[in-house]
Design a protein that fits this description.
Length: 169
């Protein structure tokens, strides 16, 4: 009787262990070292009121496995910006100057790939709390269409080790 119970326990553990193990393999495939950029959901902001002359569109992105070289990082966000234009998302408002502000973050323990803003009563977690993971920034406007790129090499704690500023087209 005890042998049957032990066999049942071992069988139940195996039944639970195999799916968990397979899920772990799937998760590892996602982070296989490939560089990937995607927009962080629920973080887009349009700032400006009807009576103001300027309207700002802020978009936030996550870069999985970003390049260490700052020139490569700049080229990566520049290419992404060209392939995913945001100008059409905010139609020109009569007499308004549009500013486009794109921020790119690295994945970290504090800012995982599935991070979402939290506006809870006792706890808030917004992107401005994650400046340590901001590694690239692009800004331009209708008035100044030349894009400005800033890229950072930061320590794990968020200390800026190197910073480069580029002015593009």
């Amino acid at each position: 009787m005890i042998k049957v119970i032990v066999k049942m326990i071992v069988l139940m553990i195996c039944i639970l262990f195999i799916p968990l193990n397979l899920m772990g393999c799937t998760k590892n495939k996602e982070s296989s070292g490939e560089t990937k950029i995607f927009e962080i959901a629920n973080t887009e902001e349009v700032v400006g009121k009807k009576d103001e002359e300027v309207v700002t569109l802020r978009k936030h992105y996550m870069i999985l496995n970003p390049p260490k070289d700052l020139t490569e990082l700049k080229e990566l966000v520049e290419t992404y910006s060209k392939e995913h234009p945001v100008e059409g998302e905010m139609k020109a408002i009569e007499g308004k100057n549009r500013i486009f502000d794109l921020s790119f973050y690295r994945e970290s323990e504090d800012l995982p790939r599935d991070w979402q803003p939290d506006e809870g009563y006792m706890n808030t977690d917004r992107l401005e709390h994650h400046k340590n993971d901001l590694i690239a920034y692009i800004i331009w406007s209708d008035a100044e269409p030349q894009k400005e790129y800033t890229v950072y090499d930061k320590s794990k704690e968020g200390k800026v080790m190197k910073q480069m500023h580029f002015i593009g087209d």
